[in-house]
Amino acid sequence: xxxxxxxxxxxxxxxxxxxxxxxxxxxxxxxxxxxxxxxxxxxxxxxxxxxxxxxxxxxxxxxxxxxxxxxxxxxxxxxxxxxxxxxxxxxxxxxxxxxxxxxxxxxxxxxxxxxxxxxxxxxxxxxxxxxxxxxxxxxxxxxxxxxxxxxxxxxxxxxxxxxxxxxxxxxxxxxxxxxxxxxxxxxxxxxxxxxxxxxxxxxxxxxxxxxxxxxxxxxxxxxxxxxxxxxxxxxxxxxxxxxxxxxxxxxxxxxxxxxxxxxxxxxxxxxxxxxxxxxxxxxxxxxxxxxxxxxxxxxxxxxxxxxxxxxxxxxxxxxxxxxxxxxxxxxxxxxxxxxxxxxxxxxxxxxxxxxxxxxxx
Amino acid sequence: xxxxxxxxxxxxxxxxxxxxxxxxxxxxxxxxxxxxxxxxxxxxxxxxxxxxxxxxxxxxxxxxxxxxxxxxxxxxxxxxxxxxxxxxxxxxxxxxxxxxxxxxxxxxxxxxxxxxxxxxxxxxxxxxxxxxxxxxxxxxxxxxxxxxxxxxxxxxxxxxxxxxxxxxxxxxxxxxxxxxxxxxxxxxxxxxxxxxxxxxxxxxxxxxxxxxxxxxxxxxxxxxxxxxxxxxxxxxxxxxxxxxxxxxxxxxxxxxxxxxxxxxxxxxxxxxxxxxxxxxxxxxxxxxxxxxxxxxxxxxxxxxxxxxxxxxxxxxxxxxxxxxxxxxxxxxxxxxxxxxxxxxxxxxxxxxxxxxxxxx
Amino acid sequence: xxxxxxxxxxxxxxxxxxxxxxxxxxxxxxxxxxxxxxxxxxxxxxxxxxxxxxxxxxxxxxxxxxxxxxxxxxxxxxxxxxxxxxxxxxxxxxxxxxxxxxxxxxxxxxxxxxxxxxxxxxxxxxxxxxxxxxxxxxxxxxxxxxxxxxxxxxxxxxxxxxxxxxxxxxxxxxxxxxxxxxxxxxxxxxxxxxxxxxxxxxxxxxxxxxxxxxxxxxxxxxxxxxxxxxxxxxxxxxxxxxxxxxxxxxxxxxxxxxxxxxxxxxxxxxxxxxxxxxxxxxxxxxxxxxxxxx
Lengths: 361, 360, 294
Prior knowledge:
The complex is a heterotrimer. By secondary structure, chain B is an alpha+beta fold. Chain B contains nine helices and 21 strands. Chain B folds into two domains: about 230 residues, 3-Layer(aba) Sandwich (Rossmann fold), CATH 3.40.50; about 110 residues, CATH 2.40.50.140. Chain B is about 25% helix and about 35% strand.
């Protein structure tokens, strides 16, 4: 029992939105579409909802071809980024609206609305109107409408993006529980990789309208299939440097050389791109093989108990994240260390040719 | 450049305010230093945008005064106060090119063509927009538009302060990163006073030298990012800063140690024995507590575990309250018998939600 | 982002009755006119083909040229007054509150009056014996008589049209102005922009679509104007205010010169179509491309 998408393509006025998308979403699954802006997340959601017509390809829900089915006949609920509610109806009527469309009797409607409101913690605002509520509450009403509809497929398009930082945290924790074990297929579009981690489930990485990788967030994080996936999956900007492999040693940007670590053994000589995460930099050599990098500080930013240091290293701008509060001035020279065992290597086409073998990378 | 001061500033949007709840801003006395980067951080409705409106001159306060360099500017409008503002919605004059956009404030103030061209080139260089100067501003991305908005503030030589009203709201997540760092660099390079309003703590903490946390019209605490993180003066600040926020457990205090659930945590701070307070709470950050492996610590029940790429966050019930423990991603959580050990060095004592001051 | 159009075969059934009615009321009469324009008769309802003769006659006719000239002058003057005036009124209206509603109601009143009543109002208004304006102007010492003086007739007809239709432009511009986000005004204030600069760089760009619509509507209506000037002046004095439509009716119904009138109708129709298409194309050139979606 699932939603299958086969070779879906869609274009508009000469601009391709989706290219050859083939995916399967199982029942009772929480799926995340992760990708940067204009990667096709919203386009794909709109295709599944039936709001847009596909150029080519098929969509099958439980084996039935729904590709040409009208949006009104699809069993789909949609939660938008912009808290979409009927402004002139009360919260109660908003949540009841999909039930009223199905012409259910008053008692059933009341019971279901109260159930859903209870679940979302909005029972005390049932008689108010959405514009008078806070952003978090309005979004809960929108989610309530989606839950009340009891649709097979629930689509959420970055629903937390317009919420305050702290409200986002609260609602994010509740979402998986709201939809768990109800036999639904939940598809959630996100651009923050942390959301993919925190919400759990199956992650689909989209970039420029194509699927780049699927799997659990942790797996994609540890072994990204390509440079673009590694970038998308990174909380901080992903660091990239030119590297040259020759005679079992690697030279980075013509400045630093080190012997090839174990996981890069099989690489043939040639040009590559070295990649690593901001958290890979450290101020002390953590292992004997750690490589020293002399860098110049451009800007430091302090967040709580961590410091983000933007440095110029080997002619490139890099980002480092370290624990503790460090204060450097622009222009200071510092030495940072990298552990070769934690580095990624990408070939000239952006494909990953070496990923660190340890569980944390 | 100016030092900005407010005296007994308060504001209400209602015509006849009576109760404190009617006021969006309550009795603020601020002293903003010249050339500093400030952030006004708080949830929606805390009054931060109102305060920014009053500083910019777009809003006239109900009561109190605001002074620039000692001069009362309360009755001057935005233009007269020489402030620049970057709004939530990127404002560019779409029919003009980037060059004309940047030149606009100078033209309105009667600068000559040569002076304008020189100044615009300087600022475009600073913002890395030199190549975009001939482009029609309507074709720019949201992030580039914000830079142009900022540029219109930077071209002016008479600017006292540049104000930012949640400027990254409509920017794409990737561009947001770069733009944030850019703004900080620009502050360092220009040396102008900058005041940044946001609800996002990452933006506030990374940008500002001094962050002012606001809640219900008051500034609860004003300090450097690490001060706010390590020593929040108010329970709200403790919970607001940090992701997740600080843990608070009810406790008793015997002069030396906090007693939670029968466990004694010796607080290594000179609080003194004669503190008169009720409702003591122990505040400690999820990063400064851990699972004990030797049976000591406060008993807790594990509810849930969240994993991000770098950390694991465990949610537990302990001593009748919800507690979070933040561990590095590679550390294991014990299977059962969960006990939390709090780092006594980093734990703080609160009475009636306010940090208990230490004896000098 | 909007719903894309799909094929709805059932929708055509709903539209069919309307299509039939429109066909009966508009397309068939139009075809009849085309028919008349290429035929001539000796009487007794016998018609013979003359090709484009009528069209040639119309285009070479001095009378047509004069009527067209008068019409163009009228339309030009009326647009030149109403569009800027309507815009200025819209700029002066308050943005919200009860006063805004009150003003809009007042503005809407002239638009609600039946057109021949408008004509009658002004016809009486301008009379030198019982008309308020007519009598007052003459009392002050200015010679004014729209029944005898061509210039006075023109002034009266133009004043009537401005009174009648400026509100439409004002209301359209007002709705366009409301779409300007407040932040633009704030930013302009901070940039030290003068009132004129704010108008030119903030408001006018946003009013483009609205002004196009206002222009097109006013052009079409004023170019085809019939009732009001006919009621006021009957086309006089002489033929001073005989605009195209008035002339056309005189030809068709007065002189029963069906062929000539039919050809003139078609030329009239084509002029309106051409100007509207030209104007719309020119103004739409700078419109933005659709935004790419995520």
